[in-house]
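Q: Protein A?
A:
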Amino acid sequence: MHQFCNLKHVKILIVEDEQGLRENMLTYLSEDNNICESCADLATAIIKLAAYQYDFVLLDIGLPDGEGFEILHYLKNEMRNEAVIIISARNSLDDRIKGLNIGADDYLVKPFHLAELKARIVAVFRRKAANSNNNLVFNEIVINLIGRTVFINDVEILLTRKEYDMLLYFIANKGKVIAKTALAEHLWGDEMDMHDNFDFIYSHIKNLRKKILDVTTNDYLKSVYGIGYKFTDK
């Protein structure tokens, strides 16, 4: 994700079945050397998203072959990072709440000025860029590096300082086998000389794993017999 003062060189997918509006958005947003593609239905949008990564999706929710909300479900299930603005003639509070809850970044009601659409896109990009710089994300786990907070499925879990440092270390080395000695040296340093064995690590691992499993069914923390641990979703 880029951080923009002005919108330039962004790859945008426009999903809109109203031909005139779709062509106007395509022309207007292409003027800044953005790469803009468009389609008029749900099926084609899914095909394009499966084939390409975009920075942004402009999404009408009233499409001829289904609800645009399906695109939001698709992006969420695939853990994609595209920013999404819903553009819709439907101005009901229920639709707004539903779209934002599924993962849309903004909701713009038709009719709108193209200049306002561009301003909304720039604002969303800035917000996402600011958030991504401060957050470390692994699936449903979000660690705010400045606030030292951890949220799993939008629920905050309270960790001790060592548990927090351990989780951070595991996610930074996700998929790798971490030896018990390497974990101890990284987190405890000279303090590990005070311990005769690795029992102190086991208790921290057990507590961290329990706190994670209290809010998600995903058991990411795996023991690797005789070696150490691995943090993985495989």
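Q: Protein B?
A:
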Amino acid sequence: MSAIFQSLGKTITAGFVILIVIILATGGAGAKAGDHAWWAFVFRWLHVMSGVMWIGLLWYFNFVQTPSMPKIPDEQKPAIGKVIAPAALFWFRWGAMSTIITGLILAGMNGYLVSALTLTKGVHAIGIGMWLGAIMWFNVWFIIWPNQKKALGIVQVSPEEKAAAAKLAGMTSRINTMLSIPMLFCMVAQQNAGL
């Protein structure tokens, strides 16, 4: 049993096996496999899973890594910058991409994509959430990641440019943390009559 937990791949596979057992034991997800409701459920689940990865890492950076960096001895900081941060940023940016893609697919499948994006009454909560998520996604891919590459030395720049890039990436990450609070509220509010 402990061999499962010594490998991330085996742990993830075991999670999916448990999921399949639960689905089979409970008679499925409430829809016939392959019909519209089933696919909508699958994309909602993928959207939530992706969002947990994305926002979880956003909050890790802002609640754990960034505040902890001043406490880490200088000789140990390269391990963060060369090993941990690049790996976390990989899952962070691809979590963002997967979240926005699955969210757009889900909105299209359920027929509210255009209404939400135009903030039509009745779906304005999810629309606001979608726009906040789109701004955050843009920030990840076009501000945070390009500047983190400079800050981490993946892209070689002058020390002044490196410091400026780190500051801009950090500030944009804080903006995304701020936006994540109303974004998550809007995403949940739409289906729970909270807005």
